[in-house]
């Protein structure tokens, strides 16, 4: 096996041959000519000399290989750079495949401090690096040097990801020093330590700078600590102005306190919202009971109104019948008197033949009878006129009653479409109008009933206004509470999107098509060689079908008296899918159809929903919060 010491004895390569030599070294690494992985979490650089060799984490070794390969330092030979570029390529392509993650086998979450750091050592906070021995030149009486952005870009290219590089200036100009600011998190500390270790591996760390009495060549760099913070120099002065020194333990404890406080505050807010929601539900329940009572009272009033109308109609019909009977009786009496007078006239005529005196007397009686008969005829004419007037009056009353009945029926049809309390008020008004028409003859009992119904009408109108105001207030409050709960649910869904589906509570994409049955079916039908490509084509095709709003493979059936939408098994596309690819693929498409029809039937696109995987149902907001609290307690 070779290393950099062997390479240095050979003739160096030109810049144009770097790519070819890099491919050659990469093939040697793939063939196992060099050992890179020393243990489960430790790696070593096979191209650095033994005196430089040390153990790296995956990410540290990747940054080392990238930094050396892209370095502009003349100390590194072209072969050395090509070897390190090949090592970086090998780590990114082959080692990532072995470990299943680009972060290497350490699998250390970004939310924790990197391994190898002394948690009680005082570091500059925020994480800050120090760069010295930056080349400067004297120009117009002032020292000038390279810009901070240029140095920052170089460090980013080497994988250290600084946030900003700030050169330090004094009265003479550029001091030849700069501070490198990293992100205020654990990945930032990880980058800072990799930055320091890279320069230490290249013999350009802090100890090397002190050993060279500040006269070395090239840049020297390290992570700022307590001694740099307290130093009486331009670096120490800048550090004291822009930060503080803390241990990793203090920073971790402070983050834990902040997170605990945030969770406590969120729990209190959710409890308050739940109490408020319960109060709103109680008020709505009370209002519903009150509304039901009002509807029952309205029904009772409506029944009383109908009974009262029937009584009025019966009374009017009896009154008309009585008048008609009286007129018939008078008419019979007049006819009886007329027949009696006719008989007496004929008797007088007979007596006229007996004697003159009797004739004279008869003539007188006849004349008298003629006069009486004339009076009776006039009385009969008047009686007929009276009968005609009574008949017309009865007809008018009948027409008025028919019109009134039609009006009542029309009002009932119109009022059926209105709300319960409005229906009651309008019917009360209709009752008042009817009683006014029937009470024009001055019936005091009807007038009292009209006044009583007026007072009831005013009370019901007042109750209706109060109830509408209360309902409107409750609706606004309930809508506001629901909006707040929906916002909280959206935030919870957003925060749980990265949680594995193996957890009890997580986020499920409703309407998403399961690809595994397609892959299995294609393996059986087309073989392993073509299965991947065929499965992708079929999945894409059926995802388009699922999003097609014009395709609606559902039928409506009645189940236990209720209409439900079910999958139409006779749909042409579904039947063809089942015949070609089997039952598993058919059930996967059917499950996606049911989910998208239930959760987003109009848009027909995939939406995220908070899901209880253990029970296979939509999770409640309370279950989601309880899951976050449990996860936080475990991680703490």
Record keyword descriptors for this entry.
single chain; 636 residues; alpha+beta; four-stranded antiparallel β-sheet; three-stranded antiparallel β-sheet; 18 helices; 11% strand; elongated; disordered N terminus
Task: Describe what this molecule looks like in 3D.
This protein is of the alpha+beta class. The protein contains 18 helices and 13 strands. It has helices at residues 4-9, 18-30, 58-69, 78-99, 148-157, 186-201, 206-211, 226-230, 234-242, 248-352, 356-416, 420-438, 444-495, 516-526, 528-547, 572-581, 583-599, 621-635, and strands at 122-125, 128-132, 136-139, 142-145, 164-170, 173-181, 220-223, 244-247, 505-510, 554-559, 562-567, 607-612, 617-618. It has a four-stranded antiparallel beta sheet with strand order 5-6-2-7. Strand 5 and strand 6 (173-181) form a beta hairpin. It is elongated and about 190 Å long. The chain starts with a helix and ends with a helix. Mean pLDDT is 78; it is low at 1-10, 97-111 and 393-398.
Could you give a quick summary of the protein structure above?
About 65% of the residues lie in helices and about 10% in strands. The protein has about 625 residues and is α+β, with helices and mostly antiparallel strands.
> What is the overall shape?
elongated
Q: The biggest beta sheet, please?
A: 4 strands, antiparallel
Number of helices: 18
Secondary structure: helix percent: 55-70%
Which residue ranges are poorly predicted, with pLDDT under 50 across at least 5 consecutive positions? 1-10, 97-111, 393-398
Query: Major sheet: order of its strands?
Result: 5-6-2-7
Number of strands: 13
- End-to-end CA span: 46 Å
Mean pLDDT, all residues: 78
Briefly note the structural class of the backbone: alpha+beta
C-alpha-based Rg, rounded: 52 Å
Strand content: 5-15%
């Amino acid at each position: 096996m070779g290393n950099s010491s062997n390479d240095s004895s050979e003739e160096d390569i030109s810049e144009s041959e770097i790519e070819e030599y890099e491919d050659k070294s990469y093939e040697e690494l793939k063939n196992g000519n060099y050992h890179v992985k020393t243990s489960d979490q430790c790696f070593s650089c096979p191209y650095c000399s033994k005196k430089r060799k040390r153990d790296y984490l995956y990410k540290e070794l990747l940054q080392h290989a990238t930094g050396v390969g892209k370095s502009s330092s003349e100390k590194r030979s072209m072969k050395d750079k090509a070897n390190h570029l090949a090592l970086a390529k090998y780590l990114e392509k082959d080692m990532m495949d072995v470990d299943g993650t680009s972060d290497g086998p350490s699998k250390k979450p970004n939310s924790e401090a990197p391994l190898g750091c002394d948690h009680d050592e005082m570091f500059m906070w925020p994480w800050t690096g120090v760069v010295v021995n930056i080349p400067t030149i004297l120009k117009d009486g002032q020292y000038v040097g390279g810009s901070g952005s240029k140095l920052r870009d170089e460090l980013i290219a080497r994988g250290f990801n600084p946030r900003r590089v700030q050169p330090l200036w004094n009265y003479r100009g550029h001091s030849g020093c700069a501070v490198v600011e990293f992100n205020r998190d654990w990945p930032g500390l990880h980058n800072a330590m990799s930055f320091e270790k890279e320069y230490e591996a290249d013999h350009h760390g802090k100890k090397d700078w002190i050993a060279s009495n500040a006269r070395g060549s090239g840049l020297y760099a390290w992570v700022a600590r307590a001694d740099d913070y307290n130093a009486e120099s331009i670096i120490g002065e800048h550090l004291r102005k822009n930060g503080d020194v803390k241990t990793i333990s203090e920073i971790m404890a402070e983050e834990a306190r902040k997170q605990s406080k945030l969770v406590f505050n969120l729990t209190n807010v959710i409890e308050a919202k739940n109490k408020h929601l319960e109060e709103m539900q109680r008020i709505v329940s009370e209002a519903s009971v009150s509304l039901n009572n009002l509807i029952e009272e309205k029904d009772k009033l409506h029944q009383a109104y109908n009974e009262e109308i029937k009584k009025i109609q019966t009374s009017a019909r009896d009154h008309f019948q009585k008048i008609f009977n009286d007129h018939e009786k008078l008419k019979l009496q007049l006819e009886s008197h007329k027949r009696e007078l006719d008989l007496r006239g004929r008797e007088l005529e007979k007596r006229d033949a007996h004697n003159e005196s009797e004739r004279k007397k008869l003539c007188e009686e006849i004349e008298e009878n003629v006069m009486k008969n004339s009076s009776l005829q006039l009385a009969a004419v008047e009686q007929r006129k009276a009968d005609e007037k009574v008949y017309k009056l009865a007809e008018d009353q009948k027409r008025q009653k028919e019109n009134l009945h039609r009006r009542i029926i029309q009002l009932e049809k119109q009022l059926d479409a209105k709300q319960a309390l409005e229906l009651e008020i309008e019917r009360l008004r209709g009752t008042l109008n009817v009683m006014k028409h029937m009470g024009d003859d001055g019936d005091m009992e009807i007038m009292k009933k009209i006044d009583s119904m007026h007072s009831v009408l005013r009370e019901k109108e007042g109750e209706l206004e109060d109830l509408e105001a209360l309902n409107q207030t409750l609706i606004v409050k309930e809508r506001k509470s629901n909006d707040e709960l929906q916002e909280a649910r959206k935030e919870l869904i957003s925060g749980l999107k990265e949680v594995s589906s193996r957890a009890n509570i997580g986020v499920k994409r409703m309407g998403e098509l399961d690809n595994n049955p397609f892959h299995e079916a294609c393996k059986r039908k087309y073989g392993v060689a073509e299965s991947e490509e065929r499965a992708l084509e079929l999945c894409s095709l059926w995802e388009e079908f699922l999003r097609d709003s014009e395709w609606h493979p559902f039928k409506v059936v009645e189940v236990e008296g209720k209409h439900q939408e079910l999958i139409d098994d006779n749909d042409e596309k579904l039947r063809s899918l089942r015949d070609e690819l089997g039952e598993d693929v058919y059930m996967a498409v059917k499950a996606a159809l049911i989910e998208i029809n239930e959760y987003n039937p109009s848009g027909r696109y995939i939406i995220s929903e908070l899901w209880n995987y253990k029970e296979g149902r939509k999770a409640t907001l309370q279950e989601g919060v309880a899951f976050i609290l449990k996860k936080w307690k475990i991680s703490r």
